[in-house]
Structures are given as structure tokens and as C-alpha cells.
Write a structure and sequence with these properties.
With 220 residues, the protein is an alpha/beta fold. Helix content is 50%, strand content 12%. The protein contains 10 helices and 6 strands, in the order H-E-H-H-E-H-E-H-E-H-E-H-E-H-H-H. The chain has a 6-stranded parallel β-sheet, sandwiched between helices. Helix 6 links the parallel strand 4 (120-123) and strand 5. The longest helix has 18 residues, at 182-199. The chain is globular and about 60 Å long.
Length: 220
Amino acid sequence: MIGASSPNTPIRQSSSSQLVCDLLKTCFTSVSCQISSQYAMLLKLGACGSSLFTLRLLAGGAMARLHHEQPNVFFIVVGPVLDKAYAADVQSTALEWPNVCVLDAVPQAELHHMMAAATAVVNSSVSEGVCGVLLESMLLGVPVVGRRNAGNSALIQHEVNGLLYDTPTEGIAQCLRLLTDLALRKKLIQQAANDVRMQYSRSSEADGYTSVIKSLDESS
């Protein structure tokens, strides 16, 4: 994942109402918003071409259904290209839908602004460890939606500090819940920030590594 940093690192929140509009105008020529609240932005952060979900999501028609039902919801994939052929497939498929944009990796400061402006940050990896981008998003106060795998399930408690899904269609449905259920959104944001501060602080991480080293030393 890109953009990972220590949970203890202060992350500047963006308060500019123009930020979402500026980003959407960069990606989508049809957008001419004046008020950012008119639009919702879903971010998928990671290596472009590394996630089967991304291509299946686009080619499978979930994005077409999303655009038909919610024309002001946009899905932006951000990340470096690791597999050029696969990334080309993602790019060409994304061009079929007016609500999907694929961007290359961006500087971390810019990435944080994008995350802070997003309606949700999505992790679609089939396999994942503890995802640094999700931790950053939770600390930023941005709801997280993750594909159900070992790493995401260890970090996200469904409907407690984030949302989990199994299929692309379910993933879109979970994202859309965040647009309509404001009480759920508020609860997820508050609990997620508390969990990151309590469980992934520098001191707790240091204690965890120390415990592992001691256990290895005792077993040798």
C-alpha cells in the first residue's frame, strides 16, 4: 500500500470545501460542482493492477449500476503501476464508465488531503496484512470499507469501526450506506480513531515487538 506512515504522525485534516470539487474536476470533465457536498468520492488506494477486485468491479458492472443509481458518486483508484499489462486493462476498463478514474501514485501530503476529502477509503485486496492506508484513514476520520480477508478483519470490526464486504456488489452497497446512515458513519469514525490511538500507538507497537523478541529469546 502507498502512503503509509506512523499512526503517531500528525496528519493535517483538509477543511477546504473546494478540495473535492478540484479533484473531481481533474478526473472528470463533466463535473462542474460549486458545493462539494453535492458529490461523494470513494478512494481505492494501492498498487494499480495488483487487485483482481478492481478489474472485476469495473468489468462486472457494479460501477455501471452505481452510476445509474447514484450519478454523483465517483470512484477513484490511486496507486503506482506494478504490472503494466494489468494496469492497462484497468485503465481501459475504467474509461467505459464516467464515474471511474485511475490515477498514478501521488505525494503523501497530497494523498492525505485526498483521503480527508473522501466519503470512504476502500481496501479491495484479496490478501492483506495490517493495512497502513486504512490506519491512516481511520486516524483522519475517514470511514473505511475493506474486503473481508485476514488482515482487514483483524483491523476492522464490521459496523463497529468500519465496514467489511465479500463481493464487489456488496462493497458498493456498504459504501453507499455511509451516504445515508449518518449515525452509523459518525459511530464508525469515532470508534476507528479511538482504536488506532489505543491499539496502534508507538508505545503499544514497541511493547508488542519487545514481547515477540523476548519470546524468541526464551525459546532459543
